[in-house]
Write a structure and sequence with these properties.
alpha/beta; phosphotransferase system; phosphoenolpyruvate--protein phosphotransferase; sugar transport; 8-stranded parallel β-sheet
Length: about 750
């Protein structure tokens, strides 16, 4: 390296010695800038640290006026240093003063310097500060010099991230790396959670970044890359993997990145500059992340996730660590933070220790959101870059009601939320006092409130809430959390436990709703262009009758001596229901023939989720004993808006004329046929929506356990006949301007209905 004394390896070795010295943080920084200036033969070396107020403070300098340390503060929109921080990219200039963003600060005395090289101090792609060298003479900094300064900046990043510099800061001007953050997202599940971050796929923390033996580190890197490539190749060669589809596309992208020569070259160059193998991976990934986070192309931002995953795999390979967090070491008040996760992954945690869930992705009707609501876990989704901003152990507040997250909250915010938690506890006590009160409106209309459930952990909620029963038991959750297909004996045990817990109260079991985005880990996934519209639920069951028959047999045996209610999901045509009901009759005959005890009565129903069934209501009601409206899927299909796609999931309001007219069609058809109708989607869990459903004629709702109290409180204050007078004319309005939600909210406010 031209002009350098000993090169980057010598610099890193000396930096390690300085880092190990028992000196103050300021003395350490002062020694570091002197060391860098001498090694790079630069007249100036300065360290600027990004503060909580998003300004840059001069923390140490060699060559500028030392009185300016902790006095010079720049905006990120000001000067060359601000440019480097803002763009998170290195900037090398032979004539800095000719650059349009050059800013002169007289207290530093920097006007005499011509050449400028600034590199961002990055960690996980986030800017923590800027490292600068300057020379009086005009010179062109070489790629090797830029590389050396970037490598040195990585060491400074760990020093800043450790919190060592906090003691040097004035109150309110602490380093931004540990700054409190108030982040907006989308509410996935109501509730408040105060706790500490647990990263679902934790970043591997690299602590040893300076190499002792460069040749050994090169061998370690090459060996780890080889193992990584072999593992990806092995996954792609797996006979159980579909030959085409999204899963294979993802793995093919992984393989492409793992064999990318540019990526490999950058990591090897970083090792040759004096970093350990894991330090090189961290350095290259942080640089790449910083660039891609600022890209406007959504494809590039999506590839960022692939690169993050691949870098973490490589780091775990280097350090010999298993993927995922240590679930045994889960804190008592865990906030799970992830890019996204499946319901099975969430259920894999000890649910008694989870206080909240925060996702970078995730929509309000995604299945992990539904499970979070069932478990009473406050959840927020669509929080941008949360996995890069949060570290394991960071304090965090999850406000599921407002869709907000407070990362590393200040004391006053934490105390305010602690009081909010106490207030919610008092309100829950008020709801608990309603537990034994019948769910009857002010004008005498009884609306039965049932629970949505799917796990043994849900069963105590029946007694706790005073619910009328279980209106939807999602049987697939048992299958999703199992490592192998549950045997009939295992299914039988669960179904009996559910019926025992319910006692005399009815339980409606939904047969397996798998396929689409609900993939069983032990079943071969079938890749489809539109999985929500594809081979799932009753379609899969009828095509694999052995699977459906084994479940029906377990249900019938579990219901021996009592009433049993079974319903089939995703029914699109009466012929499907006829075929499914025939399987029930066949299994009844089989059990009767072999001397098994049978249920007293078997009620067989269908879920109204597919719009085609809206035009076969009289036919299906002539065959079925009851219907249940699955509002999540019905709304999704009505508006052709994928509920897992955050761009469109919330585009259409279920309290709109189209959706409410569809719901009314089902309620009126049930009334004509004298058959019970229940709405069991997430819609019933919101008081305002429950008000609308009662006005449409629904007398049975199934909702999440946490929603029973608020919905019952609203119904107790509701006059259904008055609500109908407001709602029904709006449904007949053909102008296209009816504002139903606003009108119902105004009605609730005037009449004192708490929504």
């Amino acid at each position: 390296m031209r002009g350098a004394l000993g090169g980057p390896r010598v610099l890193l070795r000396r930096l390690r010695e300085v880092m190990a010295e028992p000196v103050s943080a300021q003395d350490r920084l002062d020694k570091i800038v002197v060391l860098i200036a001498a090694n790079m033969v630069a007249e100036v070396c300065s360290v600027y640290v990004l503060r909580v107020d998003q300004t840059l403070e001069l923390y140490a300098t060699e060559g500028l006026n030392r009185d300016a340390v902790h006095q010079t503060v720049l905006s990120v929109d000001e000067g060359l240093v601000g440019h480097v921080a803002r763009e998170a990219e290195s900037l090398a200039l032979s004539d800095a003063q000719a650059h349009p963003e050059f800013s002169y600060r007289p207290e530093t005395g920097e006007e005499i310097y011509s050449s400028f090289l600034g590199v961002p101090i990055l960690r996980a792609g986030n800017t923590l500060g800027v490292l600068v060298v300057q020379n009086r003479a005009r010179r062109t900094y070489t790629e090797e010099e830029i590389e050396a300064l970037q490598t040195t900046a990585m060491v400074l990043a760990e020093m800043i991230a450790s919190g060592e510099l906090t003691a040097l800061a004035r109150p309110g001007a602490e380093p931004a790396v540990r700054r409190p953050l108030h982040l907006k997202g989308v509410s996935l599940a109501d509730g408040l959670g105060l706790g500490h971050v647990v990263l679902h796929e934790p970043r591997v923390r690299v602590t040893n970044v300076i190499a002792d033996d460069v040749q050994r580190e090169t061998h370690r890197l090459d060996a780890a890359i080889g193992k990584l490539r072999h593992a990806i190749d092995k996954m792609l060669e797996d006979d159980g993997l579909a030959k085409s589809g999204e899963h294979r596309d993802i793995l093919e992208a992984y393989r492409m990145f793992a064999h990318d020569r540019g990526w490999m070259h950058k990591m090897r160059e970083a090792v040759l500059s004096g970093l350990t193998a894991e330090g090189a991976v961290e350095r290259v990934q942080s640089d790449t992340r910083a660039r891609m986070m600022r890209a406007s192309d959504p494809y590039l931002r999506e590839r960022l996730h692939d690169l993050d995953d691949l870098a973490n795999r490589l780091l775990r390979e280097l350090l010999g660590r298993a993927p995922g967090p240590d679930r045994e070491a889960l804190p008592e008040n865990a906030i799970i933070v992830a890019r996204n996760m499946s319901p099975a992954a969430l259920l894999d945690y000890d649910r008694t220790r989870i206080r909240g869930l925060v996702l970078e992705e995730g929509g309000t009707t995604s299945h992990v959101s539904i499970v979070a609501r069932a478990l009473g876990i406050a959840a927020v989704g669509q929080v941008d870059n949360i996995t890069g901003l949060a570290d394991s152990g960071d304090p965090m507040i999850v406000d599921g009601q407002a869709g907000e997250v407070h990362l590393r909250p200040p004391g006053d915010v934490e105390e305010a939320y602690a009081e909010k938690v106490r207030f919610r506890a008092r309100r829950q006590a008020q709801y608990a006092a309603l537990r034994t009160r019948p769910s009857v409106t002010k004008d005498g209309v009884h609306v039965a409130l049932h629970l949505n459930a799917g796990l043994v952990v849900d069963l105590p909620h029946i007694a706790e809430t005073g619910a009328a029963g279980i209106g939807l038991f999602r049987t697939e959750l048992q299958f999703m959390i199992a490592s192998a297909f549950p045997r009939i004996s295992e299914q039988l045990k669960l179904y009996r436990a559910v019926l025992d817990a319910a006692g005399e109260r009815p339980v409606t079991f939904r047969t397996l709703d798998i396929g689409g985005d609900k993939v069983l880990p032990y079943m071969r996934a079938v890749e489809e262009e539109n999985p929500a519209l594809g081979w799932r639920a009753i379609r899969l069951g009828l095509d694999r009758p052995g699977l459906l028959r084994s479940q029906v047999r377990a249900l019938l045996r579990a219901g021996a001596g009592r009433d049993l209610r079974v319903m089939f999901p995703m029914v699109a045509a009466v012929e499907e229901f006829d075929a499914a009901r025939a399987i029930v009759e066949r299994e009844l005959t089989h059990l009767r023939k072999h001397g098994h005890s049978l249920p007293e009565r078997v009620f067989v129903g269908a879920m109204v989720e597919v719009p085609s069934l809206l035009f076969q209501l009289d036919e299906i009601l002539a065959r079925a004993d009851f219907l249940s409206v699955g509002s999540n899927d019905l709304v999704q299909f009505l508006f052709a808006a994928d509920r897992a796609n955050v761009r469109v999931a919330d585009r259409f309001d279920p309290l709109s004329p189209a959706a409410l007219r569809a719901f009314r069609m089902v309620a009126e058809a049930g009334s004509r046929a004298g058959k019970p109708i229940t709405l069991c989607g997430e819609l019933a869990s919101r008081p305002l929506e429950a008000l609308a459903l009662a006005a449409l004629g629904y007398r049975s709702l199934s909702l999440s356990p946490a929603a029973v109290g608020p919905v019952k409180a609203a119904l107790l204050e509701l006059d259904v006949s008055a609500a109908r007078k407001v709602l029904l004319p709006l449904l007949e309005d053909r102008s296209g301007t009816a504002r139903i939600r606003e009108s119902l909210q105004a009605f609730a406010e005037i009449t004192g209905v708490p929504v």
